Amino acid sequence: MYGQSDEYLDSPLSHQDIQLIDERNIGAQDKHYLRLLAHCLFTLKAIANSVDCIDSKALPQQENCLQWLIEKKGFKKEEYFVAVFLEQLDIASKQLDVLGKHYSVSPLELSLSQLIDFVEKEGSEQTS
């Protein structure tokens, strides 16, 4: 799944994924949040599929994420980037865990359409 983008080298989001998000009738901030959350979801799925995770439906542990960044992506000397990236994945994992409970699925079983649906509903509830 990682590296599937038509325009962005090594992005987990395809051109179609980005277009689907951009076509939504939501604010720019919500679109940005949605792209970040989708990027994290697809990255976490890639990590779970490529390293030895005990439960393939559970979110990868930070050690698995670090292993993936070093072994699969070669970020050995990028200590600051790795620390920030792992922190952001951790924050996204918590948000995906909440969404998974909302949809009664494991976080890694969430789809882009469920993320879009949730963000659209949240945005419409805030403007009501």
Describe the structure.
Helix 2 crosses helix 4, helix 2 runs antiparallel to helix 5 and helix 3 packs across helix 4. The radius of gyration is 15 Å and the shape is globular. The protein has 5 helices and no strands. It has one domain. By secondary structure, it is mainly α. The N terminus is likely disordered. Helix content is 64%, strand content 0%.
Which properties best describe this structure?
128 residues, mainly alpha, globular, disordered N terminus
Question: How many distinct beta strands?
Answer: 0
Distance between the termini: 37 Å
What is the residue-averaged pLDDT? 84
Strand fraction? under 5%
Q: What is the count of DSSP helices, taking H or I runs of 4+ residues?
A: 5
- What structural category arises from helix and sheet content? mainly alpha
Determine the fraction of residues in helical runs and give it as a percent range.
55-70%
Overall morphology: globular
The H-and-E topology, N to C, reads as HHHHH
Number of domains: 1
- Rounded to the nearest angstrom, the radius of gyration is 15 Å
Biggest sheet overview: none
Low-confidence stretches: 1-8
